[in-house]
Known about the structure:
This protein is mostly helical. Helix content is 51%, strand content 0%. It has twelve helices and no strands. The radius of gyration is 33 Å and the shape is elongated. The termini are far apart.
Amino acid sequence: MPHATACWLIENTGLSFSQIAEFCGLHILEVQAIADDTASIKYTPRDPVRAHELTVEEIHRGEADPDYVLKISKGSEPVRRTKGPRYTPVSKRQDKPDGIAWILRNHPEISDGAIGKLIGTTRTTIAAIRDRSHWNIANIVPKDPVTLGLCSQRELDAIVAKAAKKAGLEAPTDVRLDGARAALIEELRRERDDAARVADEGEVPVPEYRSEADRLFDTPARD
């Protein structure tokens, strides 16, 4: 719950917005919006100390040094998720809206649930980008999620093919080689007919050679 955690840190600590954004995996503008009470959603603060994610001492270190990067507490190994959105590195999370916008523009047949699993986002974010109510919509530029490193080309192709099949859409057929293919088939048919005609007329005489050298240089014997 990064937004709720950020809300608690804003209200109860003297940490900088950049420190909170880094720890919660959010964009600094999102933290700013929560602090200014201009975020589209009102969050209930979540205490990371009670959740054993931060210690009071770690918060004090961050308050004393604005450049200090908060470290999450090492507790028991969390239960690994096998379903739901994928994990995206913090450095790439700000690129998610651009990737979502690209998919919505180029592949509207893909469901919000499929986009969420591919990019690692929520239906709320997808809906906000679709209806242009996202808090940062003015800065969102559609970009290929593969180029952004949010997914692989194979994953994108698979989800596009699945969505197209479900929607009853046929994949585009490449007709650029149709002419060359027809010419090749015609040439093979002509060679087959020529071979059959030669076989009907009889065997082709094999020339005689005086020596092995004549055979190699293809010089038949002369009378």
